[in-house]
Every structure is written in C-alpha cells, then in structure tokens.
C-alpha cells in the first residue's frame, strides 16, 4: 500500500508543473510571432513567472492537497525545485542578458543546493512522498479548524509565492545584467558554497541523531535528549545557518550588479527562519524527555552563529 501510494504521489509530483513548463516552451517557440499574448510574455518576464507560479503552484497544488484530504506535502518538495526552474526560466527568456561565466557558476551552485535539499528531504521522509506534512501546517490546521481548507491557500501557498519569488530575485538579476566578473563574485561563491556544506553536515548529523533515537526507542532504551555533537555543539541551528548563508551569498551576486535593494529577500527569509527557530525551540521545551535538557542547551549554546560553549553556571 505504501509503495502504491508512493508511486502515485511521485506521478503527481512529476506531472504537476507540466502546465507551466509546456506553456513556457510554447512561448519560447512562438515569441517572435506578432501576437499580443506572446508580446506580453516577452516584455514582462517577472510578471509571467509570478502568473505561472500563482496558477500552477498556488491554485493547482492547493487543489491537489484538498483532493488528498488537505495533505500539503508538495509545496515543501517544490520549495527545493522551483529555484532551479526559475533560474532556467530567466536564463532562457528572450529578454535575458548576462555574463556567461557568472550564469554558469550560479547555475552550478543552484543545482548543487537543490540536490542537497532534495536528498535531505527524501532521507528525512524515508524516501516516501506525501506520507506526512510539515508539523507547522498541522498546528495551523488545528488553529483554524473547519476554515483551514480555504485559509491554507493564503497561509501556505500565497505566502510561499511572496517569499520564494522574493528570495529568488537574484536569479533574475544575474540573468538581466551583463557586467564583467569581479572580486565580489568570488566572495559570493565562498558564502554560497559554505552555506551548502554547513547545511549538508548539519542535516547529516541530525539525521544520524534521529535514527539512533528511533532505534533506542524500539529497543525500549532511554533516548538521547539533545544533539550536542559536531556542528550542533557550537550552534543550536546550524542547518538554518547554512540555509541563510546560501541565500545571502546568492543575493551578493545580484548586489554586485548594482541592485542594492536585493538583500531584502534574504533578510525577510532570515526573519522567517528566526520565527521558525522560536517555534521549534518552544516545541523542544514542551517535550517531556528533553525539555529540561534543552533549556540547559539554550543557556550554553549559541542560537545560529557557531561559538564556543558557555559555562552552565553562568
């Protein structure tokens, strides 16, 4: 049954973005035709990307979730795929102009980021699709009750469009401004790659910790309350730190092209992760077997930026 459901959800996930992909390929084929629709798509790449996101992700993904008893799993999966799709959308748009080397570098980094995220996602979900959804959505569904079916459209999908299109704007800037390679591009590479590496190791250490606790629970043995090894010894949320470094590094590519406002997207993402951090830590403190240990962990360990342990008595 699980295999059948996994295969069905894999097919849904594969075919879900096809309307946007087919429309965009048709546009690229006909963009030179004298037609008002193709002219509009040609003149407004950002608006076109947002329109496709609204109808294909917001509306279609939301409708699929309603058919699957409000199981909103696809938006989490496509959070890791949409940036890659947007990158190629902007790079292949007829209005695109860019430095080829910078485009290659950003494309490579974005693909590496996406592959890492997808691997982490499937590893966390035991290589299954659509079995469970984000615990934050479950909390919100309990909060809104019977109104959740329509509130979810705004709380999950429309808000995701604003955030994801905002933090992905550097991908548009990189493919709309043609300037020579500079020293800041090297700095952006270091920041982006550092974020990917930190997030990978943090997620791997967290996965091993969770797997070990599952085995201990099955054996009826006490579980380990807190992960305090590796990167988690110096930061309570190194995975969030890595993710933020990625988006700030990506924004630096665009800032280097003269867009001083571009950090707004990364800043909003950091604020959202800050809010998520508060929710996660409140959840940890409420858990009986680790509540007190986590309070001690909070006193001794830095929140995001890695730093040496503090004395428990201070």
TrEMBL record:
<feature type="transmembrane region" description="Helical">
    <location>
        <begin position="148"/>
        <end position="174"/>
    </location>
</feature>
<keyword id="KW-0812">Transmembrane</keyword>
<protein>
    <recommendedName>
        <fullName>Steroid 5-alpha reductase C-terminal domain-containing protein</fullName>
    </recommendedName>
</protein>
<keyword id="KW-0472">Membrane</keyword>
<feature type="transmembrane region" description="Helical">
    <location>
        <begin position="6"/>
        <end position="25"/>
    </location>
</feature>
<feature type="transmembrane region" description="Helical">
    <location>
        <begin position="46"/>
        <end position="65"/>
    </location>
</feature>
<feature type="transmembrane region" description="Helical">
    <location>
        <begin position="181"/>
        <end position="202"/>
    </location>
</feature>
<feature type="transmembrane region" description="Helical">
    <location>
        <begin position="261"/>
        <end position="280"/>
    </location>
</feature>
<keyword id="KW-1133">Transmembrane helix</keyword>
<feature type="transmembrane region" description="Helical">
    <location>
        <begin position="71"/>
        <end position="91"/>
    </location>
</feature>
<dbReference type="GO" id="GO:0016020">
    <property type="term" value="C:membrane"/>
</dbReference>
<dbReference type="InterPro" id="IPR010721">
    <property type="entry name" value="UstE-like"/>
</dbReference>
<dbReference type="Pfam" id="PF06966">
    <property type="entry name" value="DUF1295"/>
</dbReference>
């Amino acid at each position: 049954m699980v295999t059948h459901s996994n295969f069905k959800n894999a097919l849904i996930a594969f075919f879900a973005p096809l309307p946007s992909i087919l429309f965009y390929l048709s546009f690229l084929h006909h963009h030179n035709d004298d037609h008002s629709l193709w002219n509009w798509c040609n003149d407004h790449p950002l608006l076109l990307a947002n329109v496709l996101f609204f109808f294909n992700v917001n509306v279609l993904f939301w409708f699929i979730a309603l058919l699957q008893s409000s199981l909103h799993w696809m938006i989490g999966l496509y959070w890791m795929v949409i940036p890659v799709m947007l990158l190629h959308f902007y790079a292949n748009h007829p209005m695109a102009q860019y430095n080829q080397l910078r485009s290659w570098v950003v494309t490579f980094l974005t693909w590496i980021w996406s592959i890492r995220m997808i691997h982490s996602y499937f590893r966390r979900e035991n290589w299954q699709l659509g079995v469970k959804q984000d615990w934050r959505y479950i909390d919100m569904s309990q909060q809104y009750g019977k109104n959740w079916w329509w509130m979810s459209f705004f709380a999950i999908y429309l808000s995701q469009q604003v955030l994801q299109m905002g933090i992905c704007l550097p991908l548009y800037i990189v493919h709309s401004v043609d300037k020579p390679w500079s020293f800041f591009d090297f700095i952006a590479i270091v920041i982006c790659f550092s974020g990917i590496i930190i997030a990978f190791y943090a997620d791997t250490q967290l996965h091993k910790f969770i797997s070990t606790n599952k085995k201990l629970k099955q054996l009826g043995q006490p579980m380990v309350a807190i992960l305090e090894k590796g990167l988690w010894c110096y930061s309570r949320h190194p995975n969030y730190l890595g993710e933020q470094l990625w988006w700030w590094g990506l924004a630096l590519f665009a800032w280097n092209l003269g867009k001083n406002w571009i950090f707004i997207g990364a800043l909003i993402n950091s604020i959202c992760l800050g809010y998520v951090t508060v929710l996660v830590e409140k959840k940890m403190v409420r858990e009986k077997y680790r509540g007190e240990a986590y309070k001690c962990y909070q006193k001794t360990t830095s929140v995001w930026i890695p730093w040496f342990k503090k004395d428990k008595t201070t």
